[in-house]
Amino acid sequence: MTLARWTTAATAALMLALPATADARDLRIASGAPPAHPSTSHLYEKLAEYLPEESDGEMGAIPLGPEVVGLGGMKDALQTGLVDVGNLLPLYFPADLPNFALAGELSLSGRDPYAMAAALTEYTVNCAECQQELSDAGMVFLGSGSSDPYMLLTKEPVETAEDLQGLRLRSGGAPYSRWAENFGAVPVSISVLETFEAMSQGTIDGSMASIGDLLAFRLVELVEYATPVPLGTYFSTSNFTTAATTWQSMSEDERAALMRAANRANADFSQRWGYDFAAIAREAAEEAGIEFLDADEAFTEAARQFALDDRETAAEVSAERFGMDDAPSRVDEFVSLFEKWEGISEEVDHDRDAMIDRMWEEIWSKVDVSSYGL
């Protein structure tokens, strides 16, 4: 079955499973990702489930599959009204969203998925410049999520920095490219959707990615080795970006209901992408014969130090590209936030329900829905 037919069938099944809501306001929602990816199965399907619950049946959702709008077209879909709520990856549009680009430049600092998701959410909600750039783009921010720590997924064994020399690795952004170049590898900037074809054709030798990509993008058929090494997490996301025109047309009760549903689904997503899916993918990898290697101590320490040093580079890049003269102080602020949330995540033992409560208490309960995003 083709992806388009599978997604259409899955969407139809989901719609049949949702409770009927007479006269409910149905939002057109789009994850932009394949069905197997957590952003569909544990982000947007959960939003569709939670909206009727949080709105007492007054709101529902119409899911649109990637055959209607993909990640690359999400900004246009939100701005033209095709989609009411969409999964936006800000690093696809750095010129329009430089504050998100700054967060993305700090990707190598990611360690705890819940902490990174919560830190970016708190930062963005309370950052006047972030809110202004979102408003200028016609969008409203309702939270972020994070992957598990990235690792090296390769055809050749990598245990030392020397093993990386000359390897062509798929890079998901500038910090990963800097990391690869620092260790003598060749970064190749392609969409994650193109990774399987590039590896199968020999264009690349591997990827710096979530282990979940083995299943989400079928890399389990090609990868032979997996090497955990400090590579950060992918957290520069705007999971439930809402079209400004849609947000403006909603009542305060509807906005609050969407906010509550989004907060719950954001945690589901980070739990799935950052923890559960990683465990499932590792088991599948072991069954497929993929060998997990331990990076040697010198390589691990060098990678860890590079991530720390790269924070200064992130500030320099943002200052140079976007004229963000206060980039160093913004980096410091964001680092303090994810350190705060790492403590909270550790305190609650990375528990989903506890993180939902803490994020609501620390962030969303303080938001005035009458003025937020307007």
Automatic annotation (TrEMBL):
It is found in: Periplasm. GO terms for biological process: transmembrane transport. CDD domains: PBP2_TRAP_DctP_like_1. NCBIfam families: TRAP_S1. One of its GO terms (cellular component) is periplasmic space. The keyword Plastid does not apply. Pfam families: DctP. The lineage of its organism: Bacteria, Pseudomonadati, Pseudomonadota, Alphaproteobacteria, Rhodobacterales. This is TRAP-type C4-dicarboxylate transport system substrate-binding protein.
